[in-house]
Every structure is written in C-alpha cells, then in structure tokens.
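User: quick one, fold this
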Amino acid sequence: MELKKINLKKLNLKQIKIIAVIGIFLISFLSHFAYDIFPNIIFSFFFPVNESIWEHMKILFTSTLIYGIIDYLLLKKNNIKYNNFPFQLYFTAISSIPIYLVIYIPLYKLLGENMFIAIFLMFLVYVFEQFISYNILKEKEYKILNILIIPIIISCYLGFIYLTYNPPKNYIFYDTKEKKYGTDDYQNNISKTSQIK
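Assistant:
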C-alpha cells in the first residue's frame, strides 16, 4: 500500500492570512521604535515620531504595507489563486486607521492612556483587516481599484508628512509623555520663530 505524499509546506489562503496577522503585529513593534533608532526626516515620513495617538496610526499603515511584500511572496510560493492584491493591501492599511480610532478614542477618554488596551486593540484590528483581505482576494478582479494603489498610498503619506510637521492643536496629535506636538525639529522651529518675533 502506497502512502500519499503530503506537502506540509503548502499553505492555503486562510493560513496565510493567519500568519499575516502575526507578521504585521510583530512588524508593528519594530515600526514603533524605528524613528527612535534612526531619527531622520525620511523615517519621520513612515514611522511615529512621538507617542501621540495620531502618530501611532503610521504603525498600522506602514506595518501593513511592509508585510504586504511577505504576503505577496507567500501567495506566489503556495500557488494561491487570488485577485485584487493591490486593492486589498491599501484598503486594509487605510481602513485600519478609522476602525482603530473609533474604538480607541472613547476608551482613551474613559480610561486614559493604557498601553495594554492600545496593543490589544491593534491586534484585534489586524485580525479584522486580514479577514477583509481574505474576502477581497477571493472577489472578482477590480481593475480600476487595483491601479489606484500608487497614487492613494502616496497621497496617504503626504497627509502623514503634513500632519507630522504641522500637527493641529488637538489631543490626538499631542504627545502626553514628551509634552509636545510633532517632532523635536518642529518644536525647535516654533521656538526659534517665537524668539525672532
């Protein structure tokens, strides 16, 4: 009796999405400290420059995009049939921000800053986003939405850049730990301007 060979290395789409949750979650920790390790203007575009609520939205966005490279390679390696990879990538990256904020802000106002809640909520958002990703990949091809990936991602980062260096005087942009808005450079420029006046 011949035994059938089972390729244990082959993953299905559901397994790849479970791995994605873990992968994005781990990358998020690296993203959190990236600017602290490499404090330069380029890193300020993609990673949080302070501990404000808004700057942490870069973690959700950038971590999802970075992991997209691994996600794509896993889909190809395991010969998974899929559609709309570009669309699901930027859609999950963008939609994670309002989903996180809608849940976190009421909790923040009620309980104050809580690292455990912030991290646990981030994990839950990643789970939900990969569920969305799983379903989008199984849908019919959305050609126009897939083409829009580059301009939409660039537009999002331009928004992040502007708000990093021109943060509104609102609590979600305020770093309660360092008592500042934006970057140190931004604060220094404001101080110099005030002195000149």
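User: anything notable?
Assistant: The radius of gyration is 20 Å.
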